Amino acid sequence: MLQHEQLVLASASQIRKQLLEAAGLTFITEPANVDEDAIKQAVRGDDSTLRPADIAQLLAQTKASVVSESHPDALVIGSDQILVLEDQLISKPATKDKALDQLIELRGKTHELISAVAVVCRGETLWSYEDVARLSMRDVSSSFLGVYLAEMGDEVTKSVGAYQLEGLGIHLFEKIEGDYFTILGLPLLPLLTFLRTRNPPLV
């Protein structure tokens, strides 16, 4: 696979990095320094008609645009994931105690994961995409959650749902509808399709 343009991943997510590496792409990683919670609060306060997908897309494009300033000739990939439970936006838990509270709220219910991705070059959004997955969590016991959190440790604070589906988090669910890569936080197949349209082609 040939690659003729520099790629930058504007994310600190290890799983997004692993997905791109596994796809054979060469890139550098530079996390965007943006206050996600402040942006969410600001846009929801300014416009209550915004869909959660719009907010995810805004965050993805903002991250890519910020990093694009220091890499003007590169294709910068920004991404974001939002969890929606009964019209409520759920953010990453800051602590294990917060993760427990969140999992208790999610258990026995179906929630949505919305993943957005955007590619920016010279401050211009060249392409964007978002996708939705629906996940139904088992009505697990509090003792089960205690064991799960003990096994996972601080890793539960690194994902928006306090679970990692590619690991032990899979045991929390009874039904999953949607694209696997969307659930992991990066709609990979549409992104690769876009990258193949570049002239000269990336892959």
Word description of this protein:
- The chain contains 7 helices and 7 strands; from the N terminus they run βαβααββαββαβαα.
- With 203 residues, the protein is α/β, with parallel strands linked by helices.
- A hairpin with a 2-residue loop joins β3 (75-85) and β4.
- Strands 1, 2, 3, 4, 5, 6 and 7 form a 7-stranded mixed sheet that branches.
- The longest helix is centred in the N-terminal third of the chain and has 17 residues, at 52-68.
- The chain has one domain: Maf protein (Alpha-Beta Complex), CATH 3.90.950.
- The model has no long low-confidence stretch (mean pLDDT 91).
- The chain starts with 6 loop residues before the first strand and ends in an 8-residue tail after the last helix.
Biggest sheet, open or closed, and with what strands and sense? 7 strands, mixed
Oligomer: single chain
What is the fold-level CATH name, i.e. the topology? Maf protein
General form: globular
Task: Supply Rg.
Answer: 17 Å
What CATH architecture would you give? Alpha-Beta Complex
What's the number of helices? Answer: 7
Strand elements, count: 7
Order of helices and strands: EHEHHEEHEEHEHH
Helix content: 25-40%
CATH class: Alpha Beta
| Domain tally | 1
Judged by helices, strands and strand pairing, the structural class is: alpha/beta
Terminal Cα separation, in Å?
5 Å
Regions with little confidence, pLDDT below 50 for 5+ residues:
none
Proportion of beta-strand residues: 15-25%
Averaged pLDDT, please? 91
